[in-house]
Amino acid sequence: MVDKTVRFGILGCANVARKVARAISLSPNATLSAIASRSVTKAENFAAENNLPESVRIYGSYDQVLEDPGVDVVYVPLPTSLHVRWVVMAAEKKKHVLVEKPVALDVVELDRILEACESNGVQFMDGSMWLHHPRTDHMENLFSLTNSKGIGQVHFIHSSSTKPTTPQFLDSNIRVKPDLDSLGALGDLGWYCIGAALWAKGYCLPATVIALPDVTRNAEGIILSVTASMQWDQPHQTIATIHCSFLSHTSMDLAICGSNGSLHLKDFIIPYQETSASYDFTFGAKFANLHIGWNLRPEEVHVANKIPQEALMVQEFARLVASIRDGGSLPSTKWPEITRKTQLVVDAVKKSLELGFKHVAL
Q1: N or C: which end of the chain has fewer CB within 10 A?
Q2: How far apart are CA 92 and CA 119, in angstroms?
Q3: Long-range pairs for 83-92: beta carbons < 8 A, 24 or more residues apart
Q4: 170 and 93, same domain (yes or no)
Q5: Are residues 84 and 203 located together in one domain of the fold?
Q6: 245 shares a domain with 274
Q7: Which residue range is the domain that position 114 belongs to?
């Protein structure tokens, strides 16, 4: 009998790789076959600390995973500056690629990655896990213009992704090093905020993007905190604000206000719980007489999930890979398109900062 399981290899032992290794074990159509680090000792320690099965092959170089015929997919949690090299090499070895965000330092680099994936017929996806939670699909139904009890036309979006960090993080973490992840908080956290705004607008690119003057950088010029605004003119005017920071208390807020209703959640990137998530939805709200209250309270909508969102991401990616490997399907273009549009807006925020907080047209 042909094994339909999709076999994953992991390049690198970053902290997030622990989460994805677990997600692979929880996904019904995926298995972890190999793990590599720049030293075999580090890979062995990773395997032991995460209780990986003895069947997982352990390598002391990334190249060995790419050469392994028992690997269908490589997951790449390496620093952003290394993505082009290793993702292109993986694609050329006909390995499908699941890549941590931010995927690239700019759209030029990203296009090299996407071209390599397309020309070699391999599936690409970035690691934006929240898009795979059933709550996201549930909320997306509220944007349908045929839904008489939905949000209606989206007019305002706000998203934030912030987290407190330690002096050690600000001194030595790869996210604050110009040679490793030069986008800083904009790439690490802002990717989610920008992605959420684009999602709410059906991935229609904004007309203009502007960074606000409250940016904070470290001594090497890496962004530690930034706020930006995006504006759409078509099919109607919409404004979005995004804020990301390594200097504030934890937040993962997403608020979307439309002509008929609004939704709000405070954990859009990582749900408070693994097995369920919720959001507040308000429809037809008005102020009570004398404006001393509201006529209704938001409805708290709960959405259950059997496995965590990161496992759902792995499951969906494995499904796409299996359909290519076993059914002759073409790679899905949905995920590369989402990534590219997110990267374009990240680039626009960065360009606005470089221009002294001027509007950048897209």
Answers
A1: N
A2: 9
A3: 83/109, 83/113, 84/109, 84/112, 84/113, 86/11, 86/62, 87/113, 87/116, 87/117, 88/112, 88/113, 88/116, 89/63, 90/11, 90/66, 90/122, 91/116, 91/117, 91/119, 91/120, 91/122, 92/116, 92/120
A4: no
A5: no
A6: yes
A7: 6-128
- The strand ranges marked E within the chain are 6-11, 30-36, 57-59, 73-76, 96-99, 124-126, 154-162, 208-211, 216-217, 223-232, 238-245, 254-258, 261-265, 276-283, 299-304, 360-361
> Is the domain of 279 the same as that of 157?
yes
Instruction: Encode 121-152: b = buried (16+ Cβ within 10 Å), e = exposed.
Output: ebbbbbbbbbbbbebbebbeebbeeeeeebbb
Q: What is the distance between the alpha carbons of residues 118 and 94, in angstroms, rounded to a whole number?
A: 11
What residues does 31 pair with on adjacent strands? 7
Residue 1 has pLDDT above 70, yes or no: no
- The structural domain count of the chain equals 2
Report the 10 Å Cβ neighbour count for 221: 9
Residue 3: pLDDT band with limits 50, 70, 90? low
Q: Look at strands 73-76 and 6-11 and give their pairing.
A: parallel
pLDDT in tens, 320-355: 999 999 999 999 999 999 999 999 999 999 999 999
The reply to whether 201 and 284 lie within a common domain is: yes
Q: What is the pLDDT of residue 148?
A: 84
- Is there a domain that residue 334 lies in? no
Residues with Cβ within 8 Å of 241's Cβ and at least 6 positions away in sequence, in order, are: 157, 158, 159, 227, 228, 229, 230
For 267, list phi and psi in degrees, rounded to 5: -145, 40
220 domain-assigned: yes
Report the alpha-carbon distance of residue 88 to residue 86 in Å, rounded: 5
Q: Which amino acid is residue 137, in one-letter code?
A: D
Task: Say if residue 44 is in the same domain as residue 164.
Answer: no
Average pLDDT over residues 140-147: 86
Place of tokens 């939905």: 150
Tell me whether residue 324 is in a domain: no
Residues 151, 121, single domain; the answer is: no
d(CA 175, CA 187): 9
